[in-house]
């Protein structure tokens, strides 16, 4: 019977924000154990959660250093100053800030949504995989001729974007 109760609580948790899941799990000892099984979907800075025993249950994280640990079940990475450590289960990837010239951006084939923020200004030729269907460029960016794969079905440009060559 307890198993059905647990399954019901886990299903209910899919409709709750992360903060509400934690509050609910604090109401009893048996519910407290569920926080180890919940999936946390709200975007959060990875250093705030790296010490938690359920760290690997977070799906949407902000990462600002290559030294930051990445949760095993992550699906959304925001900023991503990573060198060959983007997990293969990531589906949404956002680059917001400058990366140094030594950074090797290797985007896994699992990524379907890719965003480049207002300060990102690196050449990406040959680096966007054919799995990407949603591509966003913010304000400033280097030239884009022939860099957008044919798989892209949704393309969005920022306000000051003007980098196509003739």
What percentage of residues falls in helices of 4 or more residues? 10-25%
SSE class: alpha/beta
Could you describe the largest sheet, including whether it forms a barrel?
Answer: 7 strands, parallel
Count structural domains.
2
The count of DSSP E runs of length 2 or more, i.e. the number of strands, is 7
Poorly predicted regions are none
Distinct helical segment count = 4
Mean pLDDT: 81
Quaternary state of this entry equals single chain
Specify the overall morphology: elongated
Strand content is 5-15%
Strand order of the largest sheet: 1-2-3-4-5-6-7
> What integer value in Å does the Rg equal?
19 Å
Q: Ends: how far apart?
A: 67 Å
SSE arrangement, N to C: HHHEHEEEEEE
Pfam family, one: FNIP
Organism: viral metagenome
Protein name: F-box domain-containing protein
InterPro entries: FNIP, STK_FNIP-Repeat
